[in-house]
Specification:
The chain is α+β, with helices and mostly antiparallel strands and 101 residues long. The chain is built from 4 helices and 3 strands, in the order E-E-H-E-H-H-H. 48% of the residues lie in helices and 21% in strands. A hairpin with a 5-residue loop joins strand 1 and strand 2.
């Protein structure tokens, strides 16, 4: 069974990261209908801007958790498919973590 991790762009310009075992079309429609009362409810309409499928749901959930911790800049680099920038931003994050006491 496949699972997906996805990023939605909300009407206020923010991003929402989620995962599903359903079809992406169904999940996005549910967000836009207000079926889920959480973050996207007051930020509709939402637009699917990135997704990746996984063979195992546990892998999709792990990817979702990782993406939720990313900065806006890293999410935008991923959405744009700019892997060089994503790599640079990842290095900057690692350098910043090393500098913390």
């Amino acid at each position: 069974m496949n699972a997906f991790v996805y990023i939605l762009r909300c009407s206020d310009g923010s991003y929402y990261v989620g995962s599903t075992r359903e079809s992406l079309e169904t999940r996005v429609a549910e967000h836009n209908s207000g079926f889920y009362g959480g973050y996207t409810m007051s930020r509709r309409p939402v637009e699917l801007v990135w997704s990746q499928d996984f063979d195992r749901v546990t892998d999709a959930i792990a990817a979702e958790r990782q993406l939720k911790g990313w900065s806006r800049a890293k999410k935008e680099a991923l959405i744009a498919g700019d892997l060089d920038l994503l790599h640079q931003l990842s290095k900057r994050g690692a350098e910043a973590r090393e500098l913390r006491p």
